[in-house]
Amino acid sequence: MGTSSKTVFTHKRYDRLAVFYDFLEAPFERYRFANWRSRLADRIVGDSALEVGVGTGKNLPYYPRKVKITAIDFSRRMLERARKRALVLGSMVQLQKMDVQQLAFPDNSFDTVFATFVFCSVPEPVKGLKELKRVCRPNGRHLLLEHMRPSNLLLGRLFDVVNPMVVRMMGANINRRTMDNIKKAGWQILKDEQLAGDIVRWVEAKPPSSRTCLSKDRHDSQIRRK
Ligand SMILES: C[S@@+](CC[C@H](N)C(=O)[O-])C[C@H]1O[C@@H](n2cnc3c(N)ncnc32)[C@H](O)[C@@H]1O
Predict the structure, then answer these.
(1) Which of 139, 159, 148, 157 is closest to 183 using CA atoms?
(2) Looking at 80-89, 173-182, 217-226, which range is the least confident one?
């Protein structure tokens, strides 16, 4: 499968940003983000989990020790930084260069899939969110911390106007309708908590119940055949 020009543009942008990324985000990190990220420690469940768009590894300190975690990013330079952070923290995370729009994992591989501030920059977010659903187990959990387009009419329009400049500079879209994208990808929303107006949100979702039933039917028929 070919790589789109938007995908090439975005990963190059993050390769270029990697060296400044932690510095640029430091004020937000200190006052808000770190606190929001700390929720991951309780909410990542099961034996295995996947983080997509790990970036420089800012979530690593909140990974529960007992869960086997794989983390991917399509920017080699961001991953290098995550690797250094993992070494310092003594984290066992498995880091891999991969595109969330084309995951190399088999179906139903992970109990928890999660991402923080990623789907604003994934070139085809619905495709990426569908891939996450594919690799998430039927009873699994999806955690997302994301900024999104505000619903306020004026503010929304302002975000639309400023967006092309932010994309050019940072690779991130500030006017993504990520809640709509999560639903379009077929996730069933369990929780939608607004953390900074309706711009930054903590979302929890699960694969649709029909898929759980389908898997259960398949499982039952396999048992009957044995
Ligand atoms: C805004 S940064 C957030 C990094 C990190 N999650 C955090 O909370 O600090 C977005 C990250 O997503 C990665 N990313 C964007 N699109 C991706 C894709 N299609 N596949 C894998 N990683 C992607 C970027 O390379 C970048 O590291």
Answers:
(1) 148
(2) 217-226
